Amino acid sequence: MALKSTIYKAELQIADMDRHYYADHSLTIALHPSETNERMMVRVAAFALFAQERLEFCKGLSDIDEPDLWAKDLTGAVDTWIDVGQPDERRIAKASSRANEVIVIAYGGKTSDIWWQGVRNKVERLRNVTVWSLGENVAPALAALAERTMRLQCTVQDHAAWLGSETADAVPIEWTVLKAAADARPAAHGGR
User: Fold this and answer.
1) Can you point out the beta strands (E) in 32-67?
2) Distance between start and end Cα atoms, the chain
3) Right CATH number for 6-179 from 3.40.630.10, 3.40.50.300, 3.40.190.10, 3.10.640.10?
4) Residues 6+ apart with CB under 8 A from 62
5) pTM of the full predicted structure?
6) pLDDT tens readout for residues 7-51
7) Side-chain half-sphere of 187: how many Cα atoms within 13 Å?
8) Which of 15, 36, 96, 114 has minimal CB crowding within 10 Å?
């Protein structure tokens, strides 16, 4: 018998002063049996950092044809595709051909550096792809925020972001932009 996903609920308040995006979101997040709290919370942080009207969680690990998050336009075409982790260059290229904008958020410190060196040459030619690498301690700190029912607040100001909860201090979300999309809309967040 296959293991089932664990369901997490989050009330997420976003105050993104860089993009002038202020909203409350009620999120239902399925934690895949092979997924860690670290990865799940990086997905939540990605939602908070790139929130828009139609952004939603996808099947992710359960379906290789879907990203972790996406936003589709009114016709059903994929506008924004967001993958978390270290996808191979074939997956990134496929996403690039299916979506207007592709965002990859890598985490894992040194393993992210090794991954990037392996895919960099092929990914850099994809004009609509942006790649971020989270700071080494960000994912473990985000994992500490995980609870089955969460009330989270994300603040973004002056190209810096924090995600916190009622029960824990805010985690600074630090990142390095490894590759910026050449033809995407101007980035709302900078990082280092």
Assistant:
1) 55-57
2) 46
3) 3.10.640.10
4) 5, 30, 32
5) 0.91
6) 999 999 999 999 999 999 999 999 998 899 999 999 999 999 999
7) 20
8) 114
